[in-house]
Structure formats: C-alpha cells, structure tokens
Specification:
mainly beta, Outer membrane lipoprotein wza fold like, 2 domains, 3-stranded antiparallel β-sheet, 24% strand, elongated
Amino acid sequence: MAVARAVFKVGLLLFVPGALLGQATGTSGRATPSGASVSTSRSSSDTDQPALQHRNPRYKIQRDDVLSLSFPLSSEFDQSVTVQPDGYVNLQGVGSLYIQGMTVPEAVEAFEQAYSKILHDPIVAVDLTDFQKPFFVVSGQVAKPGQYDLRYDITVSQAIAIAGGFTPEAKTQILLYHRVSEDWVEVKKLNLKDILHGKNVSEDTQMQPGDMIFVPEKFITSFRKYVPYSIGMYASPQALIN
C-alpha cells in the first residue's frame, strides 16, 4: 500500500507553543526532523515548492529558553538569561539582544559581537540550560486527545495507543502532519488498519517532535492533497479532508 503524501504551504503557524510542528525545527519547534527539511527562502522560485535542506538542523532558540553565559576572561559578566516573549534577552552591560530563532553557535557570535562594544575580543561560552521539551499531538477520534511528551522513539501506532486508542467512530486511515520549515508542512495518509494487522508495518512512521496525528471520523472518505490556507491547521485540522 502506498502512503499518500503531500507537502503544502501554510499561512500561519501550525501549532502553538513554538509551532507544534516544528521543531521540531527550532524556529517553529524545537526538534530536528529526521528526514530532509525544506528552505524558507522567499524567492519566487521557492514559493511554489519546498527545496531540500540539510538533514538534522541545529536546535533554534525559542521563547522561555534559558541560557547560561560565561566569560572565561571576564567572569564579572557571567550570567543566566531567559528569552522573553518578544524574543529578546537582557544582557548585563549591553542591553537587549534579539536571539529567538538562532542556533546556539549563532547566539555565541551575536553575544560576542554585542560585548565587543565594551570588551576587547570577548570570548563567550553559552549553554542551553532549559528549553522546550519534545512533544507530539494527537487529535480527533481518540480516547484522550492532547499533547504528549516525546520522551523516546515511538511510531504513529504507538502514539495513538498513548492517546488511548481509537474511539468507535474513528477511521483507521489517519493523517500525520509534520512541519518541515516555517512555511511548509508535509502530510501523510497512513492506513493503521493494515499496520495493526501486520501489513505494511514499515509504513508505521516514526514520530518527530512537533508532529500531529489527526484521526478523522468514519464518514470522512477522502482528503485533499493541496489546499489554500488562511488559518492554522491546529485550529482546523479537517481542512485537508472532504
């Protein structure tokens, strides 16, 4: 059985907080997708389809993350900072700096540049001490829909079991949403009935941080691969189904 798959562009963030489909990705989520992700370039050649990007992108700093800054040569500036809701951190001696969406190496460079105004060739070591934990979401016709911690490697069928399993009204052909960039989301249609009966078990996809499973009702018979979006998918997950 072939797995139905689509990649489409969305206008708003798919999930909250930090884009539940995302980090998955760091800017929009925290974790890194195991497969190829896509570029967020705004050029005209890239707006119609995603472009391949490097595997395993670095974690990107998000709101409420906590970073420890240490200065080997100027310990009086050692400090712990929390990313504010607007993406800024308040730095001792140099004021505010926007770091949301940066990787830790990028933040190190930004901190060193900021402190170069008051220190000669500053060296800054940065540790990410608190950050958004990986999670996944299961919605629709399951016993316990909601957000769950992704503490270890699990598959789609295991994620549904964690959410209490299917309700009697559930359709076993489910939709898996995975954000691959700020603008693009990959959608897979999986037949869990076959998988649970030992068929096509290789299609039991491994969950990635920020992924969402939507379990439709039985009366829903098909889904649209490509649709225009003006609202977030989390607010209207049935936008893909007829």
